[in-house]
Every structure is written in structure tokens, then in C-alpha cells.
Amino acid sequence: MQRGFAARCAGLLAVGLCAVALDAQAAGNDANICIKETGEAAIDACSRAIQSKRYAGHVLARQYLSRGVERRAKEDYESALADFAEAARIDKKYADAFYNRCAVYNFRKEYDAAIAECSQAIKLGPSADAVVAGGSERLGKDNALSDYYAERGFAYFKKDDYVHALPDLDNAVRLNANNGRALKTRGLTYEAKGDSRAAADLASAKLLGE
What we know:
mainly alpha
């Protein structure tokens, strides 16, 4: 009788351990999909990974960031800003979280807020796992920092503050000569100032798809 009870307990224990293992595997799959996929599949996977309570620190912050990037792509800007804010709260040194908030504020024409967020991103510097928005392609630190400067330079340009815009855009191009957004914005800045260097920058930007 005792042996039967022990066998049943062992069976229940095995089932429980299997369930735990399956839960862990599912959470791991969600975490992977969250980072590597795009669209609704990524948003749903990120949400499940976050809700699993299995992750903390930078890993959790990156899940919020990834979900925010996908929500921004769907033009759900309020939810995206909330996700980026949570990523920054969890990991206060996560520059990409501030950069992505900067990009949203620029889109919404809230340029002072954009400048503040990008300034914090520049101050912190890119993380080792900075990636192309909406994808898994890892950026080098110079390319990521170039994007930060380009985004802040754009905000200054839109405020007609060319004195601050040009140094940022120069830094962006210096760090990544193929940053089409930086080249285009610098070209437009030169054009607004009546500077003949505008044409070269705008032509280069066009070749890069801007």
C-alpha cells in the first residue's frame, strides 16, 4: 500500500516537473520570438514573456522595448511610449529606450521632448545589444550612436535651431557615413541656410533611399 502511494506520488511529481519544464520552454520560445520576430506575433510573444514573471533586469527591459518598437510600427504611439518608459524604468542605463521615445516625440512634433530623450540616450551611449528597429540585426555602437545624433539633430532642425542641428548631424555622419536620414536632414539644414553643400548631402541621401 505504501509502495502504491509512493508510486502515485512519484507519478504526480513527474507530471508536475514536466508541466514546469513545458512552461519554461514556452516562456523561452516567447522570449526568442519577442526579440526576433515582428508584428502581432512579436507583440503577443513579448506580452506573454513579460507576464510570465520569469525575466528581470535588462532582459525584461529589452522585452518591453521590443514590444514598444512593434507598437510604434503599428502607430500605437501611446502604448509604445509606455513600453519604452517601462524599459527605461527597469534599466535606467538603457539608451535605446530613451532613443525610441525621442523618435516617437519627433513623429508627434514634440521636439523639446524629443531633444531631452535623445540627449539622455547620447549621454548613456548605446547598449551592446542595440538592434535595428523591428528586427534582430545588431548594430555597431557607432551606428547606433549615429542614429541618436541624427534623431536629435532632426528635432533641432525642425525647431529652426541650425546652430545645434549641424553639430549633431555632423557627428551622425562622422559615425556612420551611410546614415541617410542624417545626410538628408543636414542637406535640408544647409539648404535652409543657403549653403551650397546642401546638394551633395541631398544627393547622397537619395542614393541611400532617403
